[in-house]
């Protein structure tokens, strides 16, 4: 069974979007186009099986984050469809969904509530989240005083404890110290083995080989290839090398 | 459509609680500001408009402060919900950009937290009427829950609309601030509505006085006034009894569904433009 089915997904962004009414009416009267279109995702199709760990690889601006936002429901696609079977926990970026003025403890409760956990369940998972994040000392401190590593820890701990079936992870693990990274990777393997679905975007390709089963290479909003993880990483790195050589030659 | 929001009742509870706590954090009187603020305004309006400008004609002797308060407290509920509602989405950009959940929750929690403030504040009006020995009309008082419900739906309709428009055009915030001020003076708050019909008013105003009731908030506030001053309540229409009340209910229903539909439609791109 598939956890995620993405079919012919296309998303355009409007650039030069003027946020004042004045600009809007001027261009309306002149009859000119009010924006330039930019294609962030172009006809993207793929499937992620249930219980699979899936990596999305691509350069900056390839459309990875847009794809993630579409998967988590924050952005609506222009055309194509996204089918998701199960609850999604997105970790879009460092400390996703944390409110700066609230304390760590309040943020845990807020995020659990956002994902539809009831009060009883929140009280059950709360100690687990605190323990995993190793933030016992600072849990009653507002998040704005947290370091980026602490935010990442809190965000990751929440995401893995909210009973989601599908977990989306985007670059979060670029921060955090070595020990915590190790712990996260171990936890990701544990999550994968428990039958949940993982979709990961990462710049550090090395750990992906260990965690993921398959990968998708994205370039300028289009799918280049889909296949077994090691094959894809090798292919991606080869392309990078040849591109670099071309640049040097020119 | 409200059913899927029920799944998020824990979240709404959290957000309402947070909103109330943040509002009164670091203030000495805390919750009492909900009562002190309209009381302070009542004193100001009584001195300025009651004594200096003499807007109290047509009201029983000495009843002007109660009249002001009875209109001001429902108005404050509307005013705060709409003004805060304007920023309900744009002020929560960090959350909206990163996780998905029904975004109607933001204007809705704004409304609920203001409702929580409104109810004890209105109880204060009743207490004041008793202290001032003003009669309270039980038959009108029995309709109070209906009035509050009507006002809540009307307010939510407006708040939904302005909250999503403000994401696209930040100008809305400024327009709303200005319009709300105009709107307040078009409601019977600082002057009794009977003045519109009184003989010493400009004849043009007397002729057009019925148009005044096209403003749903004027009708709603007059409903509250009717509890203490039956002669200041919504005027009966000779042709259709209760015309203005029926009209307000219809406007509220239409506004609410139109706002809900537009909100859903414009919500699709909120994640990008916010």
Automatic annotation (TrEMBL), chain A:
<dbReference type="InterPro" id="IPR027417">
    <property type="entry name" value="P-loop_NTPase"/>
</dbReference>
<dbReference type="GO" id="GO:0016020">
    <property type="term" value="C:membrane"/>
</dbReference>
<dbReference type="GO" id="GO:0016887">
    <property type="term" value="F:ATP hydrolysis activity"/>
</dbReference>
<dbReference type="Pfam" id="PF00005">
    <property type="entry name" value="ABC_tran"/>
</dbReference>
<feature type="domain" description="ABC transporter">
    <location>
        <begin position="26"/>
        <end position="245"/>
    </location>
</feature>
<dbReference type="InterPro" id="IPR003439">
    <property type="entry name" value="ABC_transporter-like_ATP-bd"/>
</dbReference>
<keyword id="KW-0067">ATP-binding</keyword>
<dbReference type="GO" id="GO:0140359">
    <property type="term" value="F:ABC-type transporter activity"/>
</dbReference>
<keyword id="KW-1278">Translocase</keyword>
<keyword id="KW-0547">Nucleotide-binding</keyword>
<dbReference type="InterPro" id="IPR050683">
    <property type="entry name" value="Bact_Polysacc_Export_ATP-bd"/>
</dbReference>
<dbReference type="InterPro" id="IPR015860">
    <property type="entry name" value="ABC_transpr_TagH-like"/>
</dbReference>
<dbReference type="InterPro" id="IPR003593">
    <property type="entry name" value="AAA+_ATPase"/>
</dbReference>
<keyword id="KW-0813">Transport</keyword>
<protein>
    <submittedName>
        <fullName>ABC-2 type transport system ATP-binding protein/lipopolysaccharide transport system ATP-binding protein</fullName>
    </submittedName>
</protein>
<dbReference type="InterPro" id="IPR017871">
    <property type="entry name" value="ABC_transporter-like_CS"/>
</dbReference>
<comment type="similarity">
    <text>Belongs to the ABC transporter superfamily.</text>
</comment>
<dbReference type="GO" id="GO:0005524">
    <property type="term" value="F:ATP binding"/>
</dbReference>
Automatic annotation (TrEMBL), chain B:
<comment type="similarity">
    <text>Belongs to the ABC-2 integral membrane protein family.</text>
</comment>
<keyword id="KW-0812">Transmembrane</keyword>
<dbReference type="InterPro" id="IPR013525">
    <property type="entry name" value="ABC2_TM"/>
</dbReference>
<feature type="transmembrane region" description="Helical">
    <location>
        <begin position="105"/>
        <end position="129"/>
    </location>
</feature>
<feature type="domain" description="ABC transmembrane type-2">
    <location>
        <begin position="29"/>
        <end position="266"/>
    </location>
</feature>
<dbReference type="GO" id="GO:0015920">
    <property type="term" value="P:lipopolysaccharide transport"/>
</dbReference>
<keyword id="KW-0813">Transport</keyword>
<feature type="transmembrane region" description="Helical">
    <location>
        <begin position="242"/>
        <end position="263"/>
    </location>
</feature>
<keyword id="KW-0472">Membrane</keyword>
<keyword id="KW-1003">Cell membrane</keyword>
<protein>
    <recommendedName>
        <fullName>Transport permease protein</fullName>
    </recommendedName>
</protein>
<feature type="transmembrane region" description="Helical">
    <location>
        <begin position="211"/>
        <end position="230"/>
    </location>
</feature>
<feature type="transmembrane region" description="Helical">
    <location>
        <begin position="141"/>
        <end position="168"/>
    </location>
</feature>
<dbReference type="InterPro" id="IPR047817">
    <property type="entry name" value="ABC2_TM_bact-type"/>
</dbReference>
<dbReference type="GO" id="GO:0140359">
    <property type="term" value="F:ABC-type transporter activity"/>
</dbReference>
<keyword id="KW-1133">Transmembrane helix</keyword>
<feature type="transmembrane region" description="Helical">
    <location>
        <begin position="28"/>
        <end position="53"/>
    </location>
</feature>
<dbReference type="GO" id="GO:0005886">
    <property type="term" value="C:plasma membrane"/>
</dbReference>
<keyword id="KW-0997">Cell inner membrane</keyword>
<dbReference type="Pfam" id="PF01061">
    <property type="entry name" value="ABC2_membrane"/>
</dbReference>
């Amino acid at each position: 069974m598939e956890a995620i089915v993405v079919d012919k997904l296309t998303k355009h962004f409007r650039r030069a979007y003027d946020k004042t009414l004045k600009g809007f009416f001027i261009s309306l009267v002149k009859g000119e186009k009010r924006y330039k279109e930019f294609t962030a995702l172009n006809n993207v199709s793929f499937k992620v099986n249930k219980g699979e760990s899936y990596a999305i690889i691509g350069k900056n601006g390839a459309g990875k984050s847009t794809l993630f936002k579409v998967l988590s429901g924050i952005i609506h696609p222009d055309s194509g469809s996204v089918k998701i079977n199960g609850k999604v926990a997105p970790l879009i970026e460092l400390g996703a969904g944390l409110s700066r003025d609230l304390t760590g403890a309040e943020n845990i409760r807020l995020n659990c509530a956002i994902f539809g956990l009831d009060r009883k369940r929140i009280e059950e998972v709360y100690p687990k989240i605190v323990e995993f994040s190793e933030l016992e000392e600072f849990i009653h401190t507002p998040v704005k005083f947290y370091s980026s590593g602490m935010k990442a820890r809190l965000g990751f701990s929440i995401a893995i404890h909210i009973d989601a079936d599908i977990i989306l992870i985007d670059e979060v693990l670029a921060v955090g110290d070595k020990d915590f990274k190790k712990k996260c990777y171990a936890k990701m393997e544990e999550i994968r083995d428990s039958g949940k679905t993982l979709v990961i975007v990462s710049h550090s390709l090395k750990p992906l080989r260990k965690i993921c089963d398959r990968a998708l290479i994205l370039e300028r909003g289009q799918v280049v290839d889909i296949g077994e993880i090691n094959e894809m990483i090798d292919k991606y790195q080869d392309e990078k090398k040849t591109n670099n050589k071309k640049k040097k030659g020119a | 459509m409200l059913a899927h929001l029920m799944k998020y009742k824990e979240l709404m509870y959290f957000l309402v609680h947070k909103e109330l706590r943040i509002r009164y954090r670091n203030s000495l009187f805390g919750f009492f500001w909900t009562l002190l603020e309209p009381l302070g305004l009542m004193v100001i309006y009584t001195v300025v408009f009651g004594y200096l400008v003499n807007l109290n004609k047509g009201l029983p002797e000495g009843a002007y402060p109660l009249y002001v308060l009875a209109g001001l407290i429902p108005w404050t509920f509307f005013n705060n919900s709409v003004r805060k509602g304007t920023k309900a989405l744009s002020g929560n950009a960090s959350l909206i950009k990163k996780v998905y959940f029904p975004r109607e929750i933001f204007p809705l929690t704004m409304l609920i937290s203001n409702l929580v403030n409104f109810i004890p504040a209105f109880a204060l009006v009743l207490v004041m009427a008793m202290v001032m020995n003003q009669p309270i009309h039980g038959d009108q008082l029995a309709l109070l829950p209906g009035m509050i419900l009507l006002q809540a739906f009307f307010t939510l309709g407006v708040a939904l609309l302005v909250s999503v428009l403000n994401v696209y055009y930040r100008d809305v915030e400024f327009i709303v601030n200005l319009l709300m001020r105009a709107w307040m003076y078009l409601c019977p708050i600082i002057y009794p509505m009977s003045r519109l019909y009184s003989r010493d008013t400009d004849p043009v105003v007397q002729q057009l006085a019925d148009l005044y009731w096209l403003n749903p908030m004027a009708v709603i506030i007059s409903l509250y006034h009717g509890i203490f001053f039956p002669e200041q309540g919504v005027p009966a229409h000779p042709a259709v009894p209760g015309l203005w009340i029926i009209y307000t209910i219809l406007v509220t229903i239409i506004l609410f569904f139109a706002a809900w539909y537009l909100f859903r439609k414009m919500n699709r791109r909120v994640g990008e433009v916010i």
